[in-house]
Amino acid sequence: MGPVAANLRRIRTARGLSLNELARQSSVAKATLAQLEAGRGNPTVSTLMSLATHLGVMLTDLITPQAAAVVQVTRAGEGAVVRGDGLDVRLVHCSTGPDTMQEIYDMRMTRGQYDSPAHGAGVREHLFVHRGRLEAGPAGETATLGPGDFIAFPADRPHLYRSLAADTQAVLILRYPAGQAGT
Question: How far apart are CA 72 and CA 153, in angstroms?
Fold first, then answer.
C-alpha cells in the first residue's frame, strides 16, 4: 500500500468520516475513494487537491510517507509525483514553521491547462519558470512567463496554469498561513 492509500485512510478515519461522507463532501466517487484506499487508484491532481481541501490537510499530507526524516534530501527523480493531463508535479520539499507552511514542487507541463480551485485565505503561490513558456495566475489576471520569469499571487480564488510550449518546467511553491494547510 502506497502513501496515498495509507494517508487517505488514516486522515479520513481520524476525522470520523465514512467513505460516503467524504465522497459527498469532496465530489469524488465512493468507488474511487475505495480504490485509492486499497492502493489501486491513480488519482489526478484535481482529485487529490479536492480531498486535501475537504480533509483540511496539505496535499503533501496525502502523498508523502508519514514518517519524515529530520534532514530531507530529494534526489532528481525522487519524491512523490502526481500526474494529470499534461501536468506532472513532483514534491521536492515540505516544511512547517511557526507562522507558515510550504510545499515546493518541480512542475512540468507538456500540454493543456490545469484549473486550480481557490485555496484558503492567505494562501499564496509562487512560480519560477526554468524552461518553456506558460500562462499562470488568477483567472482574469494571468501573465505569460518564459525562462527566468517569476510570478507570485494570492491563491484564494480560482487560478490556472496553461502550457504554451511542449516542455515547460518550473518550481512551484505553495505557502499556507499556519492553520490553513490544504485549504
Answer: 27
Decide: helix, strand or coil at residue 91: strand
Could you read off the pLDDT of 6-41 as tens digits, one per residue? 888 888 877 888 888 888 888 888 888 888 888 887
In the chain, alpha helices (H): 3-14, 19-26, 30-37, 45-55, 59-63
- Is 68 a residue whose pLDDT tops 60? no
Residues 102 and 91: beta-carbon distance below 8 Å: no
Q: The pTM is what?
A: 0.64
CB 94 within 8 A of CB 103: yes
- Neighbour count for residue 66 (Cβ, 10 Å): 9
**Is residue 66 over pLDDT 70?**
no
User: What are the structural domain ranges in the chain?
Assistant: 3-63, 81-177
Task: Name the DSSP letter for residue 157.
Answer: S
Q: Which CATH number fits domain 81-177: 3.10.20.740, 2.60.120.10, 3.30.2420.10, 3.30.450.20?
A: 2.60.120.10
Query: Residue 59: how many CB atoms within 10 A of its CB?
Result: 23
> Measured between alpha carbons, how far apart are the two ends of the chain, in Å?
26
Q: Please tell me the CATH code under which domain 3-63 is placed.
A: 1.10.260.40
